[in-house]
């Protein structure tokens, strides 16, 4: 579904990502992990065509972002749902309008159907009755759930969850991952970036770990835990869970 | 930021500003305001409310001080007060009302536009719009542009009246010049009003574009919004000064006899 070849990106002379090769298939739920500031969010934006890589190319459904016109890109982006790390709820719209937005923009449903779908989706994320509120009136956890509803309402074939639990308490985080798991459809691809490996475990089938500007590991959590590589063991909490937690806390600075 | 900016990054700021301006006109032509009427009206009120007191104070003070200073000089050189009013009105219409109001609007409204759009960039709302096949220029820039253009014209007219009234009051109350002597308008022509009007329209176009550009190009976290706001005020004020120079020259050669 998505193929990235030799993707690299620098900002102001600083190389954030280089030589990233990835392939994702339908039906997968893949965790993208790595310390804060390693470029997880950046990679997600490169995959969905919001950021142009300096090197390499990304193809989605066999079409490379670089070859597409502005209109074609916009069309292809409709096949993505995205939950942004910073919520990205439109502050000039109500919750209901926010959630409805991807459907309204696509313009293939009647207003009535859109409303029904919005109510249904908000109920699913346990937020019924907040349609008329603005995002500034919501708590962090509620905003994430609204963002979750907006990301999934279009039932897009590819859904990206960028740090869905950043800044949330453990209970709310678990709830968010459960919701992601509930909303997962068998034929769609989901990419989840996070450093909350423990709570991702039940949801993700395999992991990509970014470290030092590139892909450091790809495989299952089991493989990572059994690896002899100390970085992996620390990160995936093999036999050194406590050390891992402490290191992670230190690395969480910018995310 | 996204594709739009990374592609355009090599181009100079002025070229990017013209690109943004033409995109804004394009979206206005495609009925952006009709679709975003509510946002447009909200912006119109917000910009007006934010600036009206500021304009009243600055232009009122400017009117009072300039009349006062000129009268001191006139008193010393040629005690002939009747020339002061008409000359003051003329420079206000042609130059000071639009330009001082323009600078004030660049500060008040320009900073507001950049801060709002900048924080939308930082919280990824701009990315989210683009993911949903919605153009940020259509949603964010076009309504602000139209509102700022209209408000610049209205606030300049209002500011001009305030400064003239304030100047007249000083002339009458402090120097005893009768109102009918001070407010003599027979030497002001349509060309003078046209020169002033052209200036405020030009500022009304340049300020929101300079500010929106600074906002859309916000980089980094919330500190980035501060930098963008400063850049917006500097660039917008600079635009006002440069346009003033160009349009004054234009008016001198083509409008005035
Ligand atoms: N638009 C941008 N301009 C400049 N630097 C950026 C930009 N986007 C990301 N970066 C830099 O890229 C690095 C990776 O950021 P990010 O992808 O947010 O990391 P993560 O999501 O893994 O925590 C950071 O150092 C950040 O400063
Ligand atoms: Mg991130």
Description:
The complex is a heterodimer of chains A (255) and B (257). Chain A is α/β, with parallel strands linked by helices and 255 residues long. Chain A is built from ten helices and ten strands. In chain A, the strands form two sheets. In chain A, strands 6-7-8-3-9-10 form a six-stranded mixed β-sheet, with helices on both faces. Chain A has a four-stranded antiparallel β-sheet with strand order 2-1-4-5, with helices on one face. Chain A is globular. Chain B is mainly alpha-helical and 257 residues long. Chain B has one domain. Helix content of chain B is 84%, strand content 0%. Chain B has ten helices and no strands. Chain B is elongated. Residues 1-8 of chain B have low confidence and may be disordered. Chain A binds chain B through residues 45, 48-52, 73-75, 77-78, 80, 82, 84-92, 101-102, 105-106, and chain B through 2-3, 6-7, 39, 120, 122-125, 127-134. Bound molecules: adenosine-5'-diphosphate and magnesium ion.
Topology at a glance:
The complex is a heterodimer of chains A (255) and B (257).
Chain A: E1 2-11, E2 14-24, E3 29-33, H1 40-47, E4 55-60, E5 63-64, H2 70-77, E6 80-83, H3 95-106, H4 111-124, H5 140-153, E7 158-162, H6 170-183, E8 189-193, H7 197-200, E9 206-211, E10 214-219, H8 221-226, H9 230-236, H10 241-251
Parallel strand pairs in A: 3-8, 3-9, 6-7, 7-8
Antiparallel strand pairs in A: 1-2, 1-4, 4-5, 9-10
Helix pairs in contact in A: 3-4, 3-5, 4-5, 5-6, 9-10
Chain B: H1 3-8, H2 13-29, H3 32-35, H4 37-77, H5 84-122, H6 125-131, H7 136-173, H8 179-182, H9 190-216, H10 222-254
Helix pairs in contact in B: 2-7, 2-9, 4-5, 4-7, 5-7, 5-9, 5-10, 7-9, 9-10
């Amino acid at each position: 579904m998505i193929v990235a070849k030799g993707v690299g990106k620098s900002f102001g002379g600083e190389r954030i990502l280089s030589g990233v090769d990835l392939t994702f298939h339908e039906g997968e739920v893949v965790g993208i992990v790595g310390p804060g500031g390693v470029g997880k969010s950046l990679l997600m934006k490169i995959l969905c065509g919001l950021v142009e890589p300096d090197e390499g190319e990304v193809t989605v459904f066999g079409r490379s972002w670089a070859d597409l016109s502005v209109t074609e890109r916009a069309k292809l982006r409709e096949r993505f749902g995205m939950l942004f790390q910073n919520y990205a709820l439109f502050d000039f719209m109500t919750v209901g309008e926010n959630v409805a937005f991807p459907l309204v923009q696509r313009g293939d449903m009647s207003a009535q159907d859109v409303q029904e779908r919005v109510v249904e989706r908000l109920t699913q994320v346990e937020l019924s009755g907040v349609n008329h509120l603005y995002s500034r009136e919501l708590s962090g956890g509620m905003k994430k759930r609204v963002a979750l509803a907006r990301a999934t309402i279009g039932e897009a074939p590819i859904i990206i969850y960028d740090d869905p639990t950043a800044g949330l308490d453990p209970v709310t985080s678990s709830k968010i991952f459960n919701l992601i798991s509930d909303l997962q459809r068998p034929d769609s691809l989901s990419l989840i970036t996070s450093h909350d490996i423990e709570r991702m475990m039940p949801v993700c089938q395999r992991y990509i770990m970014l470290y030092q500007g590139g892909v450091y590991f790809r495989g299952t959590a089991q493989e990572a835990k059994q690896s002899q590589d100390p970085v992996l063991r620390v990160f995936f909490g093999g036999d050194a869970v406590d050390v891992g937690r402490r290191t992670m806390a230190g690395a969480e600075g910018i995310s | 930021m996204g594709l739009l900016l990374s592609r355009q990054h090599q181009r100079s700021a002025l070229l990017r500003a013209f690109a943004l301006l033409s995109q804004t006109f394009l979206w206005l032509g495609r009925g952006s305001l009709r679709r975003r009427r509510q946002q447009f009206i909200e912006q119109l009120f917000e910009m007006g409310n934010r600036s009206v007191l500021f304009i009243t104070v600055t232009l009122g003070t400017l009117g009072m001080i300039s009349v006062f200073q000129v009268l001191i000089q006139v008193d010393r050189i040629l005690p002939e007060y009747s020339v002061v009013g008409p000359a003051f009105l003329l420079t206000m219409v042609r130059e000071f009302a639009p330009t001082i109001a323009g600078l004030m609007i660049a500060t008040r409204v320009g900073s507001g536009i950049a801060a709002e759009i900048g924080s939308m960039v930082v919280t990824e709302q701009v990315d989210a719009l683009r993911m949903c096949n919605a153009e940020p220029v259509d949603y964010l820039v076009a309504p602000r542009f139209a509102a700022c253009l209209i408000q610049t014209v209205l606030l300049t007219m209002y500011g001009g009246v305030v400064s003239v009234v304030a100047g007249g009051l000083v002339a009458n109350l402090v120097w005893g010049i009768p109102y009918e002597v001070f407010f003599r308008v027979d030497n002001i022509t349509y060309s003078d009003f046209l020169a002033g009007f052209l200036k405020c329209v030009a500022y009304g176009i340049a300020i929101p574009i300079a500010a929106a550009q600074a906002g859309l190009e916000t980089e980094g976290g919330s500190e980035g919004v501060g930098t963008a706001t400063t850049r917006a005020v500097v660039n917008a004020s600079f635009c006002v000064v440069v346009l003033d120079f160009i349009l004054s020259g234009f008016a001198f050669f083509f409008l005035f006899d």
